């Protein structure tokens, strides 16, 4: 964890504590959030019933009868300041993509590349899984170099299907359920990170890496 990142602790209702490492996404803040979530999991903190890492924060849901906010905040501060950090999410995933999305040509134009060159640049190196969530099995991957950063669309699509590969804000995302989105659609994949019948229902974790391969 980066030593200069001092998190802000915020109560969420009477059963939640949010540990926020930054106001906006950065590589350091994301790594801090992922690492801290792993540390809490390894520590087995009394009363914590759910650990939810996000892009730059971690939500701890706790049982008030087992631990109070102040006591949990104290445990959090100790974990933040303790030396060493358990590894989190080191699995590698290979995801085959059909680059046939309706926004692909527009995105390539925005970064001043031919479509084939954009695909090559997009797939040039594995991306780190920044977070999962938002919708079941949804995966955020990043970060792309500055030359590939484009804004979100101005108009939200009402729904894209499971397996849609999305692109915006220096990230690539993969849907595992049908969702609305303001991201650019660049392709689709048969890969799904959500099986409600499985335990656990997802296979990809924050901190894993994803290598995208064109079909």
UniProtKB/TrEMBL annotation:
Record's protein name: Carboxyltransferase domain-containing protein
Gene3D superfamilies for the chain: 3.30.1360.40, Cyclophilin-like
Keyword annotations: ATP-binding, Hydrolase, Nucleotide-binding
Record InterPro entries: CT_C_D (IPR003833), Cyclophilin-like_dom_sf (IPR029000), PxpB (IPR010016)
GO function terms (MF aspect): ATP binding; hydrolase activity
ATP-binding listed as a keyword: yes
Pfam family, one: CT_C_D
Domain Carboxyltransferase positions: 7-204
SMART domains cross-referenced by the UniProt entry: AHS1
Domain of life: Bacteria
């Amino acid at each position: 964890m980066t030593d200069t990142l001092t998190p802000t602790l915020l109560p969420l209702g009477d059963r939640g504590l949010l540990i926020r490492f930054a106001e906006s996404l950065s590589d350091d803040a994301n790594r801090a959030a992922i690492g801290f979530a792993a540390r809490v999991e390894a520590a087995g903190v009394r009363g914590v019933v759910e650990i939810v890492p996000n892009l730059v924060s971690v939500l701890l849901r706790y049982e008030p009868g087992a631990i109070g906010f102040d006591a949990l905040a104290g445990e959090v501060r100790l974990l933040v300041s303790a030396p060493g950090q358990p590894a989190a999410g080191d699995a590698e995933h290979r995801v085959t993509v059909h680059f046939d999305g309706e926004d692909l040509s527009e995105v390539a134009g925005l970064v001043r590349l031919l479509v084939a060159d954009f695909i090559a640049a997009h797939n040039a190196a594995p991306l780190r899984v920044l977070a999962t969530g938002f919708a079941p099995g949804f995966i955020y991957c990043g970060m792309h170099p500055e030359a590939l950063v484009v804004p979100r669309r101005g108009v939200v699509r009402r729904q894209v299907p499971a397996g849609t590969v999305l692109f915006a804000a220096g990230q690539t995302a993969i849907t595992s359920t049908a969702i609305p989105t303001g991201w650019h659609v660049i392709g689709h994949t048969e890969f799904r990170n959500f099986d409600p019948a499985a335990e656990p229902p997802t296979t990809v974790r924050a901190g894993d890496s994803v290598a995208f391969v064109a079909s």
